[in-house]
From TrEMBL:
<dbReference type="GO" id="GO:0005764">
    <property type="term" value="C:lysosome"/>
</dbReference>
<dbReference type="InterPro" id="IPR000111">
    <property type="entry name" value="Glyco_hydro_27/36_CS"/>
</dbReference>
<dbReference type="GO" id="GO:0008456">
    <property type="term" value="F:alpha-N-acetylgalactosaminidase activity"/>
</dbReference>
<dbReference type="InterPro" id="IPR035373">
    <property type="entry name" value="Melibiase/NAGA_C"/>
</dbReference>
<dbReference type="GO" id="GO:0009311">
    <property type="term" value="P:oligosaccharide metabolic process"/>
</dbReference>
<dbReference type="InterPro" id="IPR013785">
    <property type="entry name" value="Aldolase_TIM"/>
</dbReference>
<keyword id="KW-0732">Signal</keyword>
<dbReference type="Pfam" id="PF16499">
    <property type="entry name" value="Melibiase_2"/>
</dbReference>
<protein>
    <recommendedName>
        <fullName>Alpha-galactosidase</fullName>
        <ecNumber>3.2.1.-</ecNumber>
    </recommendedName>
</protein>
<keyword id="KW-0378">Hydrolase</keyword>
<comment type="similarity">
    <text>Belongs to the glycosyl hydrolase 27 family.</text>
</comment>
<keyword id="KW-0458">Lysosome</keyword>
<dbReference type="GO" id="GO:0004557">
    <property type="term" value="F:alpha-galactosidase activity"/>
</dbReference>
<dbReference type="GO" id="GO:0016020">
    <property type="term" value="C:membrane"/>
</dbReference>
<dbReference type="Pfam" id="PF17450">
    <property type="entry name" value="Melibiase_2_C"/>
</dbReference>
<feature type="signal peptide">
    <location>
        <begin position="1"/>
        <end position="23"/>
    </location>
</feature>
<feature type="domain" description="Alpha galactosidase A C-terminal">
    <location>
        <begin position="318"/>
        <end position="401"/>
    </location>
</feature>
Length: 434
């Protein structure tokens, strides 16, 4: 190598070192994270005297970890057990460090991390970039970012949800990338979940999804989920209305997060529970359950443990699906392209009268001509063999329910079609062949 080339290299190296890197590049969350998160179901219940079984304490997390392992969740991929707000003491210690509440977490977070790691699980924790967390516990102001990242890493934490209460837009624009760098600098792989966009309205120009994908592994875009069907619908509506912006932002290592699964709680009927699972799966959403795994019903468990559903959610291509049809009859169709030329379709009914017979064809849903598919109903397991693109078919969809299909081609069309990754709304959204 000549001296000119060498000095060119040296210059490039010097530039690379001098430039602040905003990229997370931690190689984590290549598929949407799966696990359990305390917030929606257990909130900020800190009254362990009156309610020892349900308060935010180490016991709750030990018990949920046991359930994840013993009831088949871990084997299916539900590996994170995540603490949310209200875990810490109301004050930092004399050295300015975060400390867990001594009465509710007497063993400390490190012991909890050791416990879950010994069982093949991972531990998530919660912080807030601001003066206080949303629940009023000590926040991570800019001067504490490095210290807190270090502390989480020392404890053996595997995921951080960084909320954004009590901070300004400017502080967030500085602090969220700063935490990404601080986490990377610890050398410990820590999945980074940012609430940043949710505090900025979730849309451009205030939210830059290109930057976000370089900073965070997943991010909350919108309002908190509550234990009601109305809440699920409002989230779905917002994600669908803004899918042209949101859908291209997702991919391996960087995901939109429409918030927790509330299946198993009090607000959703059986049909609505199946709908949340199917819709979150086509949206390539993280599958973070917030429910009491000690008392969950067999039917809720069956929905959450559907193997084909999880396989679709975890598809390695990591392409988020889209709503492709919105009928006047209040039927909507969602499509998610999957690896190996497969796809998932969700037929969703917003009707409130009776089961609706919806007739369509794969041609109408923009599938390539001349292909023949094997179809598996994701919930019933029934198989339809030899469905041609031009064949008309009907599905019967219950009120506020779904029919979900997994399709893979038995015969490919003569002309391979091309990957369609990011399209304008007018061009439609097609299944892909890689
Ligand atoms: C915010 C977040 C929720 C939860 C609470 C905790 O509202 O969006 O997910 O973490 O704070 O106080």
């Amino acid at each position: 190598m000549g001296t000119a080339a060498l000095s060119g290299l040296a210059l490039a190296l010097a530039l690379a070192l001098a430039l602040p890197s905003a990229a997370l590049e931690n190689g984590l969350a290549l598929t949407p994270p799966m696990g359990w998160l305390a917030w929606e179901r257990f909130r900020c219940n800190v009254d362990c005297r009156a309610d020892p079984r349900n308060c935010i304490s180490e016991t709750l997390f030990f018990e949920m970890a046991d359930r994840l392992v013993e009831d088949g969740w871990r084997e299916l991929g539900y590996e994170y057990i995540n603490i949310d707000d209200c875990w810490s003491a109301k004050q930092r210690d004399a050295m300015g460090r975060l400390v867990p509440d001594p009465e509710r977490f007497p063993s400390g977070i490190k012991a909890l991390a050791d416990y879950v790691h010994a069982r093949g699980l991972k531990l998530g924790i919660y912080g807030d970039l601001g003066t206080l967390t949303c629940g009023g516990y000590p926040g991570t102001t800019l001067d504490h970012v490095k210290q807190d990242a270090q502390r989480f890493a020392e404890w053996g934490v595997d995921m951080l949800k960084l909320d954004g209460c009590y901070s300004s837009g400017e502080e967030q624009a500085e602090g969220y990338p700063e935490m990404a760098r601080a986490l990377n600098a610890t050398g410990r792989p820590i999945v980074y979940s940012c609430s940043w966009p949710a505090y900025q309205g979730g849309l451009p120009p205030k939210v830059n999804y290109t930057i976000l994908a370089e900073v965070c592994n997943l991010w909350r875009n919108y309002d908190d989920i509550q234990d009601s069907w109305d809440s699920v619908l409002s989230i779905l509506d917002w994600f669908s209305a803004n899918q042209d912006v949101l859908q291209p932002a997702a991919g391996p290592g960087h995901w939109n997060d429409p918030d927790m699964l509330i299946i198993g709680n009090f607000g959703l009927s059986y049909e609505q529970s199946r709908s949340q699972m199917a819709l979150w799966t086509v949206m390539a959403a993280p599958l973070l359950m917030s429910t009491d795994l000690r008392t969950i019903s067999p039917s809720a468990k069956e929905i959450l443990q559907n193997r084909l559903m999880i396989q679709i959610n975890q598809d390695p291509l990591g392409i988020q699906g889209r709503r492709i049809v919105k009928e006047k009859t209040h039927i909507e169709v969602f499509l998610r392209p999957l690896s190996q030329a497969a796809s998932a379709l969700v037929f969703f009914s917003r009707r409130t009268d009776m089961p609706f017979r919806y007739t369509t064809s794969l041609a109408k849903l923009h599938f390539p001509e001349d292909a023949v598919y094997e179809v598996q109903d994701v919930y019933s397991g029934k198989i339809i063999s030899g469905l041609k693109t031009g064949d008309s078919f009907s599905v019967v969809i219950n009120p506020s329910g779904v029919v979900m299909w997994y399709l893979y081609p038995m015969v490919l069309p003569a002309q391979p079609w091309h990957l369609v990754r990011q399209q304008g709304p007018s061009e439609g959204f097609h299944p892909v062949l890689l």
